[in-house]
């Protein structure tokens, strides 16, 4: 009985090295996008003349959604080798879509009270992305 908290790849099922590489690259780009989102948000929170940075943040959100979608599509191809990659990537996509909706409500609907949910969800998203990086590394070694 294993005491590991991270699921192991299914015995005897090997993931294509190319698919794992694409998954890892897309997940890394998604994580970079999430990190840049935090930097860009820091450029406009509590500042005057912030509209340009808000626009950059909105465009970045769209790019991150597309990257998360691509990551999830590739992760579905890995479903036999790693349910952790598939479920994690799908969960990441859902969280990023929810996050984008919250961001739209904050900027377009002037619902600033949602920032108290928006920021912690961003941290959860980043943590899940880091976890998926470890799943990809485990698949590459497997």
What's the topology here?
Elements: H1 17-44, H2 51-77, H3 83-108, H4 115-141
Helix pairs in contact: 1-2, 1-4, 2-3, 3-4
Structural class: mainly alpha
Q: What portion of residues is helical?
A: over 70%
Strand content: under 5%
Tell me the number of structural domains: 1
Identify the overall geometry: elongated
Mean pLDDT: 89
Please describe the biggest sheet, giving its number of strands, its sense, and whether it closes into a barrel. none
Number of helices: 4
Give the quaternary arrangement of the chains. single chain
How many runs of DSSP E, i.e. beta strands? 0
What features would you highlight for this structure?
142 residues; mainly alpha
Characterise this structure.
This protein is mostly helical and 142 residues long. It has one domain (31-141). The chain is 76% helix and 0% strand. The chain is built from 4 helices and no strands. The longest helix is centred in the N-terminal third of the chain and has 28 residues, at 17-44.
What does this entry show, briefly?
The chain is mainly α and 142 residues long.
């Amino acid at each position: 009985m294993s005491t590991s908290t991270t699921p192991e790849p299914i015995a005897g099922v090997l993931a294509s090295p190319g698919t794992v590489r694409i998954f890892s690259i897309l997940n890394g780009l998604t994580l970079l996008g999430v990190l840049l989102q935090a930097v860009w948000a820091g450029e406009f929170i509590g500042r005057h003349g912030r509209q340009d940075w808000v626009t950059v943040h909105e465009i970045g959100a769209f790019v991150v959604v597309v990257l998360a979608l691509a990551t999830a599509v590739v992760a579905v191809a890995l479903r036999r080798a790693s349910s952790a990659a598939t479920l994690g990537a799908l969960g990441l996509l859902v969280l990023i879509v929810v996050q984008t909706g919250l961001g739209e409500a904050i900027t377009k609907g002037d619902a600033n009270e949602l920032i108290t949910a928006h920021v912690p969800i961003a941290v959860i998203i980043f943590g899940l992305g880091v976890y998926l990086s470890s799943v990809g590394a485990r698949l590459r070694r497997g």
